[in-house]
Amino acid sequence: KIHIENLVTTSKSSNPLLKGLAKTPLRRDNRKGSKFCSRRLKSRSPHATTLVFPSGNQVIAGTNSQSEALLAHTSFSAIIASMIDGMSGAGEFKIQNIVASCHVGYNVDIATMAKDHAHIFSWDAKLFPGARAKGTSFGTSVLLFSSGNGVITGAKSERQIVLTFEWLYEIVEP
Q1: How far is residue 83's CA from residue 58's CA, in Å, rounded to a whole number?
Q2: Where do the H-state alpha helices sit in 20-134?
Q3: How large is the average pLDDT for residues 94-112?
Q4: H helices present in the chain, as ranges
Q5: Does 61 score more than 90 pLDDT?
Q6: Pairing relation of β-strands 57-63 and 48-52?
Q7: Which residues, in sequence order, are CB contacts of 9 under 8 Å at separation 6+?
Q8: CA 104 to CA 74: how far, in whole Å?
Q9: Is the pLDDT of residue 38 over 80?
Q10: Is pLDDT larger for residue 86 or for residue 117?
Q11: Where are the alpha helices (DSSP H) in 108-157?
């Protein structure tokens, strides 16, 4: 069982009006004395948060699917356009990271698995209760706990999440 928890995406706008965005007070401004040169905007539907930088770059986080991320990208671009009284020039949309939770369906003996697959998993119960696998052929990282719950991160597509889970399931299968 896999559930996507968060997507982080980026996009770039070519509108030169964004250069003054961080310096001017705007409606919907959530900055409270921050020295970080960006504006944070939140959306309820889809549930997402974006950081807008004067360079035109945007980072959007908090969505649960690629379609929600694209909808948030479009929504935030329209909001920014209304804030600067012009077209935001919504540009390239790119997924940077997908985080998913998973469950293999049964408890896992982490100690035995970490010993049998030491070339894949690192585990030290004194430091952290989960086994870590990094550098899978899919470019993802996995945390696996004895309860059978896990976290997959580092994917650029939902397909990479599924492939990583299938790879993980083959290793821990009883």
Answers
A1: 15
A2: 66-83, 110-116
A3: 93
A4: 66-83, 110-116, 158-172
A5: yes
A6: antiparallel
A7: 59, 60, 61, 63, 69, 73, 93, 94, 95, 96
A8: 35
A9: no
A10: 117
A11: 110-116
- Binned at pLDDT 50, 70 and 90, residue 27 comes out as very low
Angstrom CA distances, 131 to 43, 59, 78, 144, stand at 35, 30, 43, 5
Alpha carbons 50 and 59: distance in angstroms, whole number: 5
Cβ atoms of 95 and 59 within 8 Å: the answer is no
111's tokens: 């100690």
- End-to-end Cα, the chain, rounded Å: 17
Query: How far is residue 61's CA from residue 25's CA, in Å, rounded to a whole number?
Result: 23
Residues with Cβ within 8 Å of 99's Cβ and at least 6 positions away in sequence, in order, are 4, 5, 6, 7, 151, 152, 153
Please choose, from the candidates 122, 150, 120, 156, the residue with its C-alpha nearest in 3D space to the C-alpha of residue 136.
120
The Cα–Cα gap between 57 and 12 comes to 4
Give the side-chain half-sphere CA count within 13 A for 31: 20
pLDDT digits (tens, 9 = 90+) for 126-170: 999 999 998 667 789 999 999 999 999 999 998 999 999 999 988
CA dist., res. 34 & res. 135, Å (int): 36
As a whole number, the mean pLDDT across the chain is: 82
Tokens linked to 113: 């698995």
